[in-house]
Amino acid sequence: MKSARPIYDNLFEVIQNRRSKRIFLEKSVPDDVLEAILNAGFRAPFAAQLCSLIYTRDRKKIKDLQPMGVYPTTQVLIFPLIDLNRHEQVMNQRGHSYNFDDTLALWLGLQDVSLVVANLTLAAEGYGLGSVLLGAAPIVADELVKMFNIPKRAFPVVGLCLGYPDPAEHTEIRPRYPLSFSAFEDKYHQPSNKELLEAMKVMDEGYLAQDYYIERQIKIPLLKGKDSIDYDTYSWCEHISRKFISGGWSKGSLLDTLRKHGFNFD
Ligand SMILES: Cc1cc2nc3c(=O)[nH]c(=O)nc-3n(C[C@H](O)[C@H](O)[C@H](O)COP(=O)(O)O)c2cc1C
Question: Which string of DSSP letters, residue by residue, matches 29-59?
C-alpha cells in the first residue's frame, strides 16, 4: 500500500487553524490516508491502551445514525471506545483475572480515549480533512452496540465525523476563554468578579461578532419565566449555562447505561 503524505506538517498551523467542519464533499477518504490518521490517533500517549475504535464508511449506517446527530455528508464515522473487554483478554492470556475498580478503569479509559481523539482530529487536519465530534454517542450506546457488534465492557465515548471539508461551508475560528482564566501558575486562581466578566465578555462578544446563534436560530428555551434575552445578547455564556440548568441523559443516568453494558460500580 502506498504511504499517505500530509499536506501540512506545521503542527502549530494545524492547531491554530482547526475548527469544526460539519459539511463534507462527496469524496471518499483513501485507505492510506485513513490508515495514517488512525495510526496517528494511536500514537498518543496512553495510560493502558484502553481505547479502541469502530469506524464505518458505509453510507447506510451513516444515514441510519443521522437522528443521533451524525452529519449527512460524513465520509468516515468513528466511535472511540473505552475497551475493558480487550484489556481483560490480554490479562487472561497472561493468566491474570481482572479485579480492579471499574470507576477508575473508566477514568483511565477516558484519559486514553481523549488523547487518541485529539490526535485523530489534528492528524485529519494535517491530511486536509475536517472533523466534528458528537457528544451523543453514550446516549445511543444501545443502537451502536447493535449496529457494530460491540461487546459488553466496551463503550462508545464520543463520535467523530470526518471528511474533506466543503469549502462552501462558512466556518470561523471560535473564541476561547482567555489564558489567564484557564491556566494558573503554581496555584489555582479564583477569578475576581471583574476577571470573570472579562472572560465571559471575550466568549460572548466573540460569538456575537460571528452571528453564531442568530444565524443558526439556536436558543435553548428557559424552563420557566419569560425569556427576555434576544439574539442581540444571546451568546455562548447564556447558551452553555442553559444547557446545564436541568436534566442530563434522556434515558436514565449514564451510570445505569454503563451498568447495562457490563460495568460494575458496586
Ligand atoms: C466532546 C464533544 C462533543 C461535541 N458534540 C458536538 C455535537 O454533538 N454536534 C456538533 O455539531 N458539535 C459538537 N462538538 C463540537 C463543538 O461544538 C465545537 O468543538 C465547539 O463549538 C468549538 O468550536 P471549534 O471546534 O470550531 O473550535 C463537540 C465537541 C466536543 C469536544
Answer: PPHHHHHHHHHHHHTS--SS--EEEEEE--H
